[in-house]
């Protein structure tokens, strides 16, 4: 964890004309002022409880929801985002909480709680002589995940090495649902525990706890972070994936939900990209590209447009309203691989695209009118397109399920055929070749290359 609050004003006013006007001449030419500050970390997770291999992706949970033990979604009373999710190559997805954790001996000193008098003054004094802030000192080397979700394989033992994850954007809209439920007879009440007298939140109903995970071996996994009850032992265990599909010939770099349709997600990895509908199979898969894909992003203004970064420094612009089998255009940006694509909508008349490459260069592109201005009813038309593709796939699956396994009817016992003698085989081949010579003559007569009375050299 890092605490950059001490440098917040500097980051906001960096190279700002107004800030330079208020600075004295000595500050402008001050070397220390011009130098970028070095910020030390404020807390490190416990080595024994952390990922055993590299962490490849990290997401903050929205401030409307939090995850309790065993993956139960509950209401976030603080209205502050305090939990995050990490995915590692070791095959685990972990949930972390940065707040004060209660123990049997009382609150652990740190974020969100009071420190004992002597220890509080001691840490404040140490912070004056150290560049490391004490904001998350309670987490340093003691931070443990509150929930671990393994990316298990459907067949056989082992875990899929995770690279990227994607949670539903509807989690951000839970707050409005909570306020609506609280007006009536809601399940979001705090009931008292008779044994301890403490108040604890009740599980939030109707929240989708499933998420997507892309792996290093090209699998797209759809699983649930909420624990389920084992039918044999009756204990709560980690959920098995709903499905795990090998969709890419390489690591999945990007899992991006459409900003217009929460149920549409795009996966990019290897030499191809796929578009999926949550809970169903893929509805679009491109052909194999000659160059690897390395980055991707959706357009913030057009539902049918997205951008794909490639290993050769080019960007493919896809417009599904124009064509779905190939990109509408390809633009060269750099001589090195594209590593990051981030769109930004400045106004209704200006949309920028930030592009980072493998050389460490940042490119800022301005999208033309045709790529930023949606066509009439484009949102409705793209939604219809996705629905038609889903209906077509469902129809195909239904036909495959209802197709009889043996179309020719019940099989009859085969009658053994007698082996041919050499004379019989030679006679059969002669008849076959003579038939071919006759057909050849008829064909040449139709072309006008032979006459009807021309002899045919048959074999006798």
Topology:
Elements lengths: L7 H6 L3 H6 L2 H4 L2 H4 L20 E6 L4 E3 L5 E3 L7 E6 L3 E6 L4 E2 L2 E2 L9 H12 L18 E4 L11 E6 L6 H10 L6 E3 L6 E3 L8 E6 L3 E6 L3 E2 L6 E2 L5 E4 L5 E6 L6 E6 L2 E6 L4 E4 L7 E6 L6 E6 L3 E6 L9 E4 L5 E10 L2 E8 L4 E5 L2 H4 L5 H25 L19 H25 L14
Compact description:
The protein has 460 residues and is an alpha+beta fold. Helix content is 21%, strand content 28%.
Describe what this molecule looks like in 3D.
About 9% of the residues have low confidence. The relative contact order is 0.07. The protein has a four-stranded antiparallel sheet with strand order 1-4-5-8, with no helix packed on it. Strands 9-12-13-16 form a four-stranded antiparallel sheet, with no helix packed on it. A four-stranded antiparallel sheet has the order 17-18-19-20. The chain is of the alpha+beta class and 460 residues long. The protein has nine helices and 27 strands. The longest helix is centred in the last third of the chain and has 25 residues.
Tell me the total number of β-strands.
27
Round the mean pLDDT to the nearest integer and report it.
80
Radius of gyration: 33 Å
Q: Describe the strand arrangement of the main beta sheet, using strand numbers.
A: 1-4-5-8
Structural class, please?
A: alpha+beta
Low-confidence stretches: 104-119, 174-198
Beta-strand content estimate: 25-35%
User: Which percent bin holds the helix content?
Assistant: 10-25%
Biggest beta sheet summary: 4 strands, antiparallel
- H/I helix tally: 9
Principal-axis shape equals elongated
Distance between the termini: 94 Å
């Amino acid at each position: 964890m890092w605490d950059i609050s001490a440098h917040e004003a500097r980051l906001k006013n960096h190279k700002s004309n107004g800030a330079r006007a208020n600075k004295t001449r000595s500050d402008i030419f001050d070397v220390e002022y011009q130098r970028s500050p070095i910020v030390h970390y404020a807390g490190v997770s416990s080595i024994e409880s952390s990922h055993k291999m590299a962490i490849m992706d990290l997401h903050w949970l929205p401030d409307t929801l939090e995850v309790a033990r065993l993956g139960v979604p509950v209401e976030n009373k603080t209205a502050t985002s305090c939990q995050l999710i990490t995915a590692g190559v070791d095959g685990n997805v972990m949930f972390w909480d940065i707040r004060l954790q209660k123990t049997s001996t009382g609150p652990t000193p740190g974020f969100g709680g009071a420190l004992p008098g002597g220890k509080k003054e001691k840490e404040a004094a140490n912070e004056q002589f150290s560049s490391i802030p004490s904001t998350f000192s309670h987490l340093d080397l003691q931070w443990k995940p509150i929930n671990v979700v393994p990316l298990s394989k459907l067949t056989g033992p082992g875990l899929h090495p995770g690279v990227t994850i994607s949670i539903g954007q509807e989690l951000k809209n839970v707050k409005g649902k909570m306020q609506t439920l609280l007006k009536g007879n809601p399940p979001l009440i705090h009931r008292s525990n008779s044994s301890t007298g403490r108040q604890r939140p009740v599980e939030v109903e109707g929240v989708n706890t499933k998420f997507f995970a892309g792996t290093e071996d090209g699998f797209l996994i759809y699983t649930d972070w909420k624990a389920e009850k084992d039918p044999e032992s009756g204990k709560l265990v980690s959920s098995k994936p709903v499905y795990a599909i090998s969709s890419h010939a390489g690591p999945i770099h990007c899992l991006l939900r459409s900003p217009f349709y929460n149920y549409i997600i795009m996966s990019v990895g290897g030499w191809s990209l796929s578009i999926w509908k949550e809970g169903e199979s893929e509805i679009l898969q491109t052909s194999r590209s000659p160059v690897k894909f390395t980055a991707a992003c959706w357009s913030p203004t057009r539902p049918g447009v997205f951008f794909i970064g490639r290993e050769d420094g080019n960007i493919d612009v896809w417009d599904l309203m124009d064509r779905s089998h190939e990109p509408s255009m390809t633009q060269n940006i750099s001589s090195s691989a594209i590593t990051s694509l981030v769109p930004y909508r400045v106004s209704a008349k200006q949309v920028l695209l930030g592009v980072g490459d493998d050389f460490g260069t940042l490119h800022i592109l301005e999208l033309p009118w045709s790529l930023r201005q949606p066509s009439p009813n484009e949102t409705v038309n793209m939604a219809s397109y996705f629905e038609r593709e889903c209906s077509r796939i469902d129809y195909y699956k239904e036909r495959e399920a209802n197709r009889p396994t043996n179309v020719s009817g019940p099989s009859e016992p085969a009658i053994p055929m007698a082996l041919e003698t050499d004379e019989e085989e030679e006679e059969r081949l002669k008849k076959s070749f003579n038939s071919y010579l006759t057909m050849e003559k008829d064909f040449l007569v139709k072309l006008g290359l032979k006459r009807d009375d021309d002899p045919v050299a048959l074999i006798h």
